[in-house]
Amino acid sequence: MYDVYEVRKDFPVLEKVIYLDSGATTQTPKPAVEAMNDFFYNYGANYGRGAHRLSIAATNAFEDAREIVADFFNAPPENTIMTKNTTESINIVANGFGFQKDDHIITTMGEHHSNFVPWLRQKENGAVVSVADIDPEGFVNPEQIDEMITDKTKLIAVGHISNVFGSIQNIEKIIQIAHKSNIPVLVDGAQSAGHMEIDLAALDCDYFAAAGHKGLLGPQGTGILYIKDPETIQPTVLGGGTTSDADACGFKTKPAPERFEAGTPNLPGVIGLGAAVEYLQKLGVKNVEAHENKLARDAAKRLKEIEGVEVYGPENRAGLVSFNVEGLEPHTVAMRLDKAEKICIRSGYHCAMPGQKALGINGSARASFALYNTEEEVDIFVKAVLDTCQPF
Ligand SMILES: Cc1ncc(COP(=O)(O)O)c(C=O)c1O
Question: What pTM was estimated for this model as a whole?
């Protein structure tokens, strides 16, 4: 196990606040910030565009970072596309899959809007979308997905970990069920990447979308998309970087991953992401997972003991806890925690309205934990929620 107090030295902002909003975006460790500075100070240039030394250095650093990220997920680098966030990754698949009239897509009520709206939008192409239920703890039942499959089902899109309930879905089972009928599966790994060990070769999903700026500790503006068979997706944005030949009669696209990375990429961001993933690997993802889950489960248990506080999600949750305080809007709870103890939590619908509306939850407050949070912070947080329940 790593020393959390040593780790905190790499995240200076943690001296100023209690940061419990890592589900939205994490803080970035010093080595990653330094790697980005190094790019700007010493070799800032464009990707693959020139024969000069700076361009070569920048291209090599970008490709090294891709390899680190791909290796982290046990995926080939050529199948690992660097995007700007999870949302872009999912949209690349939704818009490049080529859905046609009567094609059937299955998703679930537990999804973030980023893994929901892009599929609903395919109705404009005549596709039919079915939405599997979630139970009161946010779990999807793989058997229900099995029953929804028809001979027209073309894709199943499911989130790995719910960003509202912290429920860890049985995606292995869902993939197994889907593959029995040769149906590809997209996994939204926004809340799982970097928070648990993920071996994409073993998992065998067809598409895996994740953020670089959440559990992987990279900067904002980074994301990844793994595509098992890049030929199944047509690139939707074309131009520089994607093209191997062009004349007045037509053009040829490069192979993956370049064909999905049109224009100048986020070079400093991806280089920072590579350094962040190396940092995470040194601490060990299994250690990180155990640490985060313990904090969240402890916080959930203690919040449940407070009268007037309702906690959502299962006991064996991942590293986040959503809750409501009777008589208070979630935003009011968040503002009071900030004012009282500089605690930063998320409040509202967390961009996941369908599931909450279905379960009659009118938004919630959410504390989400990362590898740098401590037991002392949980103590202060629980005490602050307790105080919030008292008349202001
Ligand atoms: C489950 C889930 N999917 C998708 C997203 C969107 O991620 P991004 O901001 O990287 O596009 C989030 C963000 O919180 C999320 O929690």
Answer: 0.97
